[in-house]
Amino acid sequence: MLKRIRIRGFKSLADVTVGGLTPLVVIFGPNAAGKSNFLEALVLLSRLVTERTLGDAFDAPLRGYPAEQFTLPPEGLAGLLGSDHSELSIEADVEPPAAPGKRVHDLRYRVGIRIAPKSGTLSLVDEYLARLRKKDGTPEERPRIERINEHLALRRRQVSGTRQQQFLLDLNHTLASNPQLSGRTYPDFDNLRAELAAWHAYYLDPRVAMRAPQPPREVTDVGTRGEWIAPFLYRLRESERHRRRFDAVGRALRSAIPTIESLDVELDRKRGTLDIEIRQEGTTYSSRVMSEGTLRILALCALAANPWPNTLVAFEEPENGVQPRRIEVIARLLASMADTAGRQVIVTTHSPGLISALARLSWERPELASVYRCIQRGRSTELRRFESLAPILKRIEQLHIDDALRGPEDEARLLAEGLSRGWWDG
C-alpha cells in the first residue's frame, strides 16, 4: 500500500506531495489538469524497481519519449533539448504485503534520474531505501541505500551488523532492481520489489481492445487496456479451483445490471478464439455488440474477483461510457475492491456523479476513502485534499431532507455547480 508520495520534475508534477493516503483514493479535476500524470508517476516508480534498465523503465506504456517525462521549461521541448540535463525524483512510503504470521517493515524509497536531452542518456543520480517506524514514519535505522557524496552506499544485513559497499553514480539501472540483492541479507529489497511489482494502472478500452478476438492464454489479469478479459474469464471458468470466482463475476455483474441474466465465455473451436456472451432479457449478446459501459463494469467485476490480485490498482476515468444511472454501481465496485484487505485503489475522474458518491463515502468512512482535487496552477499541477463537500452533506443529514432531495443525482448537480462556480477552489 502507498502511504505517501512526493513527485518532483515529472511532467506537470513539478513538486507534489500527497500523504495520508487511504485504501481508496479519488483524484478529480478537469481534462489536462495532470490527473493522468500522477498515475504515470506510479507506473514509472514501479518500473524503475522492476525493469532491468532505466531505458526499459521509461519505455511504453508511458506516454511520450523519455525526455518528455521530465518537467519542461517555459520554452517547452525545444528548451529542454537545448539544456545539458534535467532531473526527476520520486519518493514513496509504502507498506509491503506481509505473509501470514510475518512482520514486514514500512519502507521509504526514493529514486532520482537524470537525462542528457541531447543524447537521451538516462542515469541514476540518487537512490535511498530505509525502514520506517510505525509510530511516526521516521527512518528506523541506517538506510539500506543512500547517496554519500558522489557514491551510492549499499548496506546488507549480517549477523555481526551491516556491511557497506559503494557504487559510483550514473548507473543505468537502480540498485533496487538488481535481483541479486535478495534473500536473508537483503530482505527489504525483496519486500520493496514485491510491493511495487504488484502496482498496475488500467486504461480500459472497451471500444477496441476489449472486443478484439483472443485465444485462450494463461493470464492473471484482464490487461492494461482490458485486452485479456476474455482469456482471463475463460481461465477462471475452466479452472476447478477458480470456477467459483467466475461465478462471483457473474453475480456481481447481475447485481450491477439487473437485466443481465447470465455470463459465459465460449471457445470457437474453428477459429480458436474466445467470445464473451451475456444473456439480457432473453437475448444473447457477444462482446462485439455489448455497450462500452457494460464492458467497463464487467472488467471491474472481474478485477474485484481476481484470485491473483495486485496490491495497488489505478483506473483512469472508469466511468467513461457508463450511463449516468450506473455511476453509483461503479462507486460501489471501487469501494468494494478497496475494502478488501491488502488492496489499494486509486481512481481519476471528472464525473460529478462519481465524485459525489465517493466524497460521501470519504465523509462516512474517512479511514477507507479520501478525495483530492487536481488543479493546474500556471504550468504545474497541484493536488489538494478535498473536504469542502463534507459540511454540505452533513447539513443535509441534519435537516432530514426528503430522500429525493438528497439522492446521488442531486449531490452530483450540487458538486458540478460548485466546481463551475469555483466554490471548492479554496
List its salient traits:
alpha+beta, Rossmann fold, 3 domains, 6-stranded mixed beta sheet, 5-stranded antiparallel beta sheet, 17 strands, about 30% strand, globular
How many helices in DSSP terms?
11
Number of domains: 3
Order of helices and strands: EEEHHHEEEEEEHEHHEEEHEHEHEEHH
What structural class is derived from the secondary structure elements?
alpha+beta
What best-fitting shape do the alpha-carbon axes yield?
globular
Global Rg: 23 Å
Q: How would a textbook summarize the main sheet?
A: 6 strands, mixed
Number of strands: 17
Instruction: Kindly report how far apart the N and C termini lie.
Output: 29 Å
Low-confidence stretches: 396-407
Fraction of residues in helix: 25-40%
**Main β-sheet, spatial strand arrangement:** 10-14-15-3-16-17
Strand content: 25-35%
Mean residue pLDDT: 89
Q: In brief, what are we looking at here?
A:
By secondary structure, this protein is of the alpha+beta class. 29% of the residues lie in helices and 29% in strands.
